[in-house]
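Hi U.,

Before I forget, here's the chain from the pilot set. I'm dumping it here mostly so it's searchable later in email.
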Amino acid sequence: MSKTPQMQTITLHKYCANGNDFLIFHTIVEEDFSSLAVRLCDRFRGIGADGLVVVLPNDTSAQNTAYKWDFYNSDGSRANMCGSASRCVGHYAFSAGLAKQRHSFLSGAGVIDIEVNGEIVQANLGKFHSLKKLGTLKEIVLLWDITEYMTKIQTSQTSLKAIKESKDSSMDMALRWAIGDFGGEELDGEFGRDFVEESEKLARDCLDTLETLKNSQWFSLNTGVPHLVCFLPAHLLPKARDTAQAKPILAILRDKFDANITIAHKIDDKRVEFATYERGVEGVTLSCGSGMAAALVVGYRFYGVDSSARLIPPSGEPAQASEDSNGCVSLRGAVSHIATCIVDEALLK
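Structure:
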């Protein structure tokens, strides 16, 4: 159904795991809550969250699980699985008396096993699949399209006042610098010197980044949801809340492959930092559980990372990710119950 189910009030529980925040409630009514998810997850006009989790009773096909869920991204789209949310919902179900300390629930990606020990929750996400080595960026997409798009966005966002206040012809010259086609034109006076120096610096930064990106190896796999993974130097990790405008190359890859884009950096054999540009959020989130799993799998197989390592998201709140001999990946870390929220009719219409 397209309309939000009619409810007068609803009690939500807000949880956080490694920087990912979610709104959770349980009901016996299985409906389409996508429009409600958009309103509730809005960080300005709603409560604010990365996603909405609806806990539902089992059906006859899931006899060995305590419940099932419907997971909605903040834009109302559904996702089969979310690693961070699985730990939050496990804690919620145990605290609410819906499940035991050790239990399983049914996600769209299959059965998730949960173990709750105080605020520490472990979720076994099951086996990853469809791991492929894709090659370098220049073998995946048309580099020129990315170069042009990335350059225009980065140039338009530079803090150089002269560029922001310049006429279109000056902006065109900055763009030509940034794509290596200035053509030997000269600018006179102090403005010209500053303009050229900043444009050259911008060009070097853009081209250095692109050179690293186009020669780096990319991998695809599914850890409950599809991911593209690339290991890069630490300074190229995206920042939390980066959007398509700030990181256009991630948006292009996300659209082309319909996957989350995870950029990782190996600190040492037991520590990996990472950031994920997520579908449904369309930006870099503070954390991503399936991204942790994806970074671990690729790091373990191709970059000398241990099979159990500390994964550090942009939030700085790490979790332990482990892969067993069967290829099953688990995540273990703290979750926090942030608030209990009673939402009235105004947001439910």
